[in-house]
């Protein structure tokens, strides 16, 4: 039996990067509703850094977002890593774990997230691996729709592939609205239709981030810039579709002062409040 989470995850959260530890310790009352970390960066970390991490998880709500499980890999599933992740989750009272619907390894790590071919065979392969991961972790996991720049061996659309994996694996979705926007430009599809096609009951939480415009028809998912208006609009559409979900601001590079990040979190909460008010009015009128 896994322990109950220490803190409920709601509102607007921030990816906890080590570069942010000092600014956050200097501003302990910064309005951040929850944090997300990559478990690979904290497994077996002890000493002062480990104590600092424990202090954060004691005081704040947390989620974990994996980087290297490589769900689509042809290599055997890394069950040793899964057992280590479970210990970290249980020790820190963290309920939610997510991973990318991608692969990043074969005989060794490739240090990039590569697209799983959109085929029926791949649906069966990755779904079985997700089910096994959930058995070891003792909890449902959420898989993230990823940004991709090529679709090798494609036999079905991204929507059909994603929905099929969610159904056969019986797992949740980490809906990354920036990835939807990036892919919609790079692969010429309607981002709002993609959002509307996702099963709302499976959306566990949401990611939002900035990106880099390489060319008018090519966007790179960089997590290194402020969020642009079309992505904010897509977040609004996502809340309309699936309701207000905990939403995580990703910023991995070119990290600005904490106050600027808090400003983007405030923008997330503003959109969330607008939907909360709208939902309340709808319930009262029903």
Topology:
Elements: E1 12-15, H1 21-26, E2 34-37, H2 47-59, E3 61-65, H3 79-91, E4 97-100, E5 103-105, E6 109-114, H4 120-137, E7 141-144, H5 158-169, E8 172-176, H6 177-186, H7 191-197, E9 203-209, E10 212-215, E11 218-220, H8 229-242, E12 247-250, H9 258-285
Parallel strand pairs: 1-2, 1-12, 2-3, 3-4, 4-7, 7-8, 8-9, 9-12
Antiparallel strand pairs: 5-6, 10-11
Fourth-tier CATH superfamily name: Divalent-metal-dependent TIM barrel enzymes
CATH topology: TIM Barrel
Instruction: Encode the helix/strand succession as letters.
Output: EHEHEHEEEHEHEHHEEEHEH
SSE class: alpha/beta
Number of helices: 9
> Which CATH architecture?
Alpha-Beta Barrel
Average residue-wise pLDDT? 94
Number of domains: 1
Helix content: 40-55%
Query: Taking Cα atoms only, what radius of gyration do you get, to the nearest Å?
Result: 18 Å
Say how many strands there are: 12
Mass-distribution shape: globular
Strand content: 15-25%
Strand order of the largest sheet: 1-2-3-4-7-8-9-12
Broad CATH class? Alpha Beta
Terminal Cα separation, in Å?
A: 40 Å
Protein described:
The structure is a single chain. The chain is an alpha/beta fold. The chain has a single domain (12-285), classed as TIM Barrel (Alpha-Beta Barrel). 42% of the residues lie in helices and 19% in strands. It contains 9 helices and 12 strands. It has helices at 21-26, 47-59, 79-91, 120-137, 158-169, 177-186, 191-197, 229-242, 258-285; strands at residues 12-15, 34-37, 61-65, 97-100, 103-105, 109-114, 141-144, 172-176, 203-209, 212-215, 218-220, 247-250. The strands form 3 sheets. Strands 1-2-3-4-7-8-9-12 form an 8-stranded parallel barrel, surrounded by 5 helices. Strand 2, helix 2 (47-59) and strand 3 form a beta-alpha-beta unit. Helix 7 runs parallel beside helix 8 (229-242) and helix 8 (229-242) runs parallel beside helix 9 (258-285). The longest helix is centred in the last third of the chain and has 28 residues, at 258-285. The protein is globular. 40% of the residues are buried. The mean pLDDT is 94.
